[in-house]
Design a protein that fits this description.
Layout: H1 2-11, E1 18-21, H2 24-35, E2 40-45, H3 48-56, E3 61-64, H4 66-71, H5 76-90, E4 95-98, H6 104-112, E5 117-118, H7 122-129, H8 132-149
Helix pairs in contact: 3-5, 5-6
């Protein structure tokens, strides 16, 4: 993992965040990378304890896998909340980067639980920004404009 991390840093940029899974070997690599002042994202987090160990190892970001935890029957929201509480309790600089989403509700729950950032698919962005509610609001704005100003464009006012 260390060799791969340095290959990535050399090939891309020294400020890249290296993703390391929270496993026995992963925790060893995280500790060594942090000694070298390398940015690390602890990934493949499915449990509170994995996250707590990653926080104790000094990671920059924790990536709990929200949807995957739900599939396994884990209360994902509770895990994210517990990670946030542990960060606060230990006065850690770690941040939560939620990952693995299938719905907008999961994303909202992650932020409600205290995550600072998320990573999600372009399909979810499209779903979020093209909902019927948003599209109706745009149509309503256009109808209001026409009711007040007729067919005039802004540059004609």
């Amino acid at each position: 993992m260390l060799k791969e991390a340095h290959a990535i840093l050399d090939a891309i940029d020294s400020s890249v965040y290296i993703k390391v899974p929270v496993t026995i070997e992963g925790l060893k690599a995280i500790k060594e990378l942090k000694k070298q002042k390398i940015n690390v994202t602890a990934t493949a987090i499915y449990t509170k304890l994995q996250g707590f160990l990653a926080i104790a190892s000094g990671v920059d970001y924790l990536a709990p896998y929200y949807n995957r935890m739900e599939i396994l029957g884990t209360n994902s929201k509770n895990v994210v909340l517990s990670l946030r509480q542990e960060i606060e309790r230990t006065n850690s600089n770690s941040k939560i980067l939620g990952a693995s989403y299938k719905t907008i509700e999961q994303i909202n729950a992650t932020f409600d639980s205290g995550a600072q950032a998320i990573t999600f698919s372009p399909e979810l962005v499209e779903q979020l920004l093209s909902s019927n509610t948003i599209l109706k609001a745009i149509d309503d704005f256009q109808l209001d404009w026409k009711a007040i100003h007729g067919e005039k464009q802004i540059n004609q006012l």
